[in-house]
């Protein structure tokens, strides 16, 4: 087994462990930097009542905490399943160097975890989405942006 396959196996083991502990769905993830695991995660949606507690998100949070950074520079993410759109976004915000995934969207859909509908929602106009989005009070909402541009001690990212 190559090092990469070993890291994927670690992600799969996290999926199995979390699932067997009834923490959530069968998904696991590890974050690797310089050949070492710096973050681990598994799906914890049902045990923490957190719909965002997907394996990739929990692993990114763990890695960022351990690295004391809000970015995953020089890191690789190994996730047991192809990331959903939410995790895809989280991964882009975290900016790792590369993502390896094990099973894919179709495999996940086959056991009842179908995120295809979210991909289909993304290009739709807001008015046609299954959850309506409506803009409200833009002028009021722009205040933090105006303050941000003036803020001298901000941490940019
Ligand atoms: Zn996800």
TrEMBL record:
Q: Which Gene3D superfamilies match?
A: Cytidine Deaminase, domain 2
- Enzyme Commission code: 3.5.4.3
Coiled coil: which residue ranges?
none
Record keyword Amino-acid biosynthesis present: no
An example GO biological process term is:
purine nucleoside catabolic process
- Where in this chain does the record put each CMP/dCMP-type deaminase domain? 2-133
What family is reported? Belongs to the cytidine and deoxycytidylate deaminase family.
Q: What is this protein called?
A: Guanine deaminase
């Amino acid at each position: 087994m190559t090092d990469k396959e070993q890291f994927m196996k670690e992600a799969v083991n996290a999926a199995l462990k979390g699932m067997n502990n009834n923490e959530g769905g069968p998904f696991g993830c590890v974050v690797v930097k310089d050949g070492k695991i710096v973050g681990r995660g598994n799906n914890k949606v049902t045990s923490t009542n957190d719909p965002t507690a997907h394996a990739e998100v929990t692993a990114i949070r763990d890695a960022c905490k351990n690295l004391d950074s809000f970015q995953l520079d020089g890191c690789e993410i190994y996730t047991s399943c192809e990331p959903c759109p939410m995790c895809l976004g989280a991964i882009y915000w975290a900016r790792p160097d590369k993502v390896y995934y094990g099973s894919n969207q179709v495999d996940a859909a086959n056991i009842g975890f179908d995120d295809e509908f979210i991909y289909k929602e993304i290009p739709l106009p807001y008015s046609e989405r299954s959850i309506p989005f409506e803009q409200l009070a833009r002028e009021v909402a722009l205040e933090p942006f105006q303050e941000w541009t003036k803020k001298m001690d901000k941490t940019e990212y």
